[in-house]
Amino acid sequence: MKDALLNRDETPAPLPDKAEADRGGGAGTTERGRGARWWAEIVGVFWLLLIVLGFHSFIAKPFYIPSESMLPGLRVGDRLVVTKFAYGWSFVSPTIPNPAAIVRSLVLRQPADSWSVSLPAWHGRLLGRLPVRGDVVIVTPPGTNSDYIKRVIGLPGDRLEVRGGTVLLNNKPVMRGPIHYLDIPVDVNSPCNPIDYPDAQLRRPDGTLVCHLPLVTETLPNGRRYDTVELGPSPGDDYGPITIPTNYVFLMGDNRDRSADSRFSSAELGLGGPVPYENIGGRAEFVTFSLDGRATLNPLTWPGSLRAGRAGRSLHPEDVTS
């Protein structure tokens, strides 16, 4: 009886609630939650990369000038915007990163032709349009994965010849103005190498070292004009005549005596003649900014390496007919 009374007065043990019941599996739940968060981060990064690559492939992408073949308008260190939709899209339009090339370039400091890979070649373009004579374009030479930047001089059906440095289109010489000069400040990215530009280095009275370049203004038949560098006789001063095939374009650099372009074979690192228009990757629009080559990994050096007056410079030639 006493035992019965004592048992009746004792407080019953509380039943475990659901949280307590699940606590035994808490470690596994935490791990699952952590894994879900990591997976969500990976998915987010994937979609971000897909959006960026899609924009680069179909709308516009940045481009870096690595050579002096387009002087005086473009200098080594210039960063540009290139539109991908100007002529429609082809197999060279998509931007597909090449991790091996990126590692070789950034980590191993080895030369890499390109940080991307191209799709297998096919003929034609989606919503394709031919460039306008005088456009500055990015081109991938057939059989390579490198990008060049040149100016469109000849179009399909043109009879093109270069004679004594003067371009002839359909038996008519392209109009050339008198020689005039431009002084480009010498810096790390524009050293004015005496081998390439003999006697061009000059020191101004204020002590500034400049590259004193002789220029000739060319005016194409459609009224678009631009400056070219004229250094005297060179191997590319005589070429052709040829007739440019259908859906091909003839490209030349503005630094005529220092440009490997359609006048030179692929063995000479040129474009090997007229280029199929599906190998054009886009049209150069404007300079975003330009670096003189003094910048290092230290962020404090970045502002001082910016070249003044380059940002926003249009890359469309002047049209004297408008």
From TrEMBL:
SUPFAM superfamilies: LexA/Signal peptidase (SSF51306). The active site is at residues 69, 150. It catalyses: Cleavage of hydrophobic, N-terminal signal or leader sequences from secreted and periplasmic proteins. Residues 44-288 form the Peptidase S26 domain. GO terms for biological process: signal peptide processing. GO terms for molecular function: serine-type endopeptidase activity; signal peptidase activity. One of its GO terms (cellular component) is membrane. Its EC number is 3.4.21.89. Residues 1-23 have a biased composition (Basic and acidic residues). Residues 1-32, 302-322 are annotated as: Disordered. It is found in: Membrane. The chain crosses the membrane at residues 38-59. Keywords: Hydrolase, Membrane, Protease, Transmembrane, Transmembrane helix. It is a single-pass type II membrane protein. Belongs to the peptidase S26 family. This is Signal peptidase I. It comes from Sphingomonas aerophila. The lineage of its organism: Bacteria, Pseudomonadati, Pseudomonadota, Alphaproteobacteria, Sphingomonadales.
